[in-house]
Amino acid sequence: MIPVKLQPEPESFDEEVRQPGLAWLDKKGIDLQSAPPEPSKLPAYWQKTNEQLWEAYSGVCAYLAIYFEWVSGASSTDHFIPKSALAGDAYEWSNYRLSCLGPNRSKNAFTDLLDPFEIQPDTFVLNLASGAIKPNPELDNAVAEVAATTISRLNLDSEQHRKMRSRAFTRYLRRKDEESLKELSPFVWYEANRQGLL
Hints:
Strand content: 5-15%
Strand order of the largest sheet: 1-2
Shape: globular
């Protein structure tokens, strides 16, 4: 996980997502600053801009920091502030994080995670040989604790994700194609660069 910069919302977002969403909440008498009574019944207007979200963030998952191909249903819009917590933010572009399905499902409605839009560089470090991720040992205790919770909640250090990261670095070592590494696995690229291994 590396810092992600908020990208501008698509021109059609207000018309396709925000306005229909806010109108629906108003019709149901749901306060924008409150939790909706039945979050699962919120109309999924955000799905209209799933592909635009993927394009805006160059197909890179905000949590795994890997590129994945656009396939309808393979990417998802994570609401960083859960839909179940704040009704109005269900229809706000700035609350969306591009996510592979796995991390989004693991995150669920948890709120005790670091936000990719707000984390500092070097919050997480990688062992490039094994692909293991951990909080930077130089973090203060409070941030390190939330970083560890983020790793745990999102399964960022699963065997599958370790292999994915170590394979990306191994491919780089064979081909020495830094641009592809940066595009396809930006976290691995960042860590390899930070560690002076490029």
